[in-house]
């Protein structure tokens, strides 16, 4: 904070003046409901804690004012009673996973979710400087609202149905394991110690029904905060993935524009075919091919055919010159 310092000021009084100035600015920002400026002020004074008198007390006052402004701006009411007191742990885990997936795909603007994000960022900025009980209260209230209001609207079967399906699958797997174990040959010592009819005589075996495991009821505050941070992490990953997708989309568009200036793929892929249709330029640097050598011992008829094939055809002007020579001789 840049606070004017008088030359005649006593040493150490400047820290008192900066503290009083910050307290005044916090009160003004709360009255104006300027949450963005108050957040920027908190980030600035957190970096320079040695410049303020009684900084721990000042920081606690600023955080409480910011949390009250968060509740007021996003309209998050405090929850007096514990809503997770009668919730089973298995049901909570299933619904919490769905909320995390929803936060990763949600691209809208939900005030409660935004309030929870800012509260978690304040908790990271606090870094254990003050007790995080007030911050945890805001995070807990926001996550409770998401769990009770958004959770039931998410697609998927109810947690009880999911647990029943898991229990049936587990029972089916255990039955298969028991059947495979019964097919294995048992040793004679095992048959002596445990005869096959001993379990039926004692009333054990298939008649004995296994008691279902009792559900653990009640969710602790650390579990709620851990799940809230998971939702925050997934929600922060969503804008990054959307930005990468837009960049890739822009890259494909620009590559398509560059590709439109190039010739067609068939023309670019077969340059030899285009060259065959065009006439080859005749110039001084034309490379001449060597004529095939003919041995003297070869057939004279073959030699004549080879010479006629290698010699170029006569043009119309050449034939006209020959006729003119014949006429002159006559």
TrEMBL record:
Compositional bias (Basic and acidic residues): 163-175, 204-213
Keywords in alphabetical order: Nucleus
Feature: compositional bias, Acidic residues: 276-301, 320-330
GO CC annotation terms, alphabetical: HIR complex; nucleus
UniProt region (Disordered), positions on chain: 158-221, 237-330
Top-level taxon in the UniProt lineage: Eukaryota
GO molecular function, one term: nucleosome binding
Biased composition (Polar residues): 177-201, 249-264, 302-313
GO biological-process terms attached to the record: chromatin organization
Main location as per UniProt: nucleus
Subcellular compartments: Nucleus
InterPro entries: Hir3/CABIN1 (IPR033053)
Its biological purpose: Has a role in a nucleosome assembly pathway that is required for the integrity of heterochromatin and proper chromosome segregation.
Family of the protein in this entry: Belongs to the HIR3 family.
Protein name: Histone transcription regulator 3 homolog
Protein source organism: Verticillium longisporum (Verticillium dahliae var. longisporum)
């Amino acid at each position: 904070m840049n606070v004017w310092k008088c030359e005649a000021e006593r040493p150490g009084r400047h820290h008192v003046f900066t503290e009083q100035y910050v307290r005044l600015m916090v009160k003004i920002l709360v009255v104006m409901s300027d949450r963005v400026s108050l957040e920027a002020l908190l980030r600035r004074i957190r970096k320079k804690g040695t410049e303020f008198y009684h900084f721990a007390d000042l920081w606690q006052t600023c955080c409480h004012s910011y949390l009250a402004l968060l509740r007021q701006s996003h309209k998050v009411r405090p929850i007096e009673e514990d809503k997770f007191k009668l919730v089973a742990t298995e049901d909570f885990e299933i619904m919490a996973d769905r909320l995390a997936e929803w936060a990763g795909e949600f691209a809208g603007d939900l005030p409660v979710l935004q309030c929870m994000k800012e509260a978690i960022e304040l908790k990271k900025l606090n870094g254990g400087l003050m007790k995080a009980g007030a911050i945890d209260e805001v995070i807990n209230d926001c996550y409770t609202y998401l769990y009770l209001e958004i959770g039931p609207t998410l697609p998927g079967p109810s947690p009880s149905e999911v647990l029943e399906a898991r229990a049936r699958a587990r029972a089916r797997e255990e039955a298969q394991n028991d059947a495979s174990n019964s097919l294995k040959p048992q040793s004679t010592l095992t048959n002596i110690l445990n005869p096959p009819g001993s379990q039926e005589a004692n009333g054990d075996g298939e008649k004995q029904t296994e008691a279902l495991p009792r559900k653990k009821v009640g969710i602790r505050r650390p579990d709620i905060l851990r799940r809230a941070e998971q939702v925050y992490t997934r929600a922060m990953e969503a804008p990054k993935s959307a930005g990468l997708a837009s960049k890739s989309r822009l890259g494909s568009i620009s590559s398509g524009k560059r590709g439109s200036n190039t010739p067609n793929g068939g023309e670019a892929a077969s340059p030899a075919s285009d060259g065959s249709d065009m006439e080859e330029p005749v110039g001084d640097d034309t490379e001449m091919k060597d004529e095939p050598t003919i041995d003297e011992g070869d057939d004279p008829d073959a030699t004549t055919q080879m010479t006629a094939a290698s010699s170029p055809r006569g043009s119309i002007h050449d034939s006209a010159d020959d006729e003119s020579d014949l006429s002159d001789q006559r």
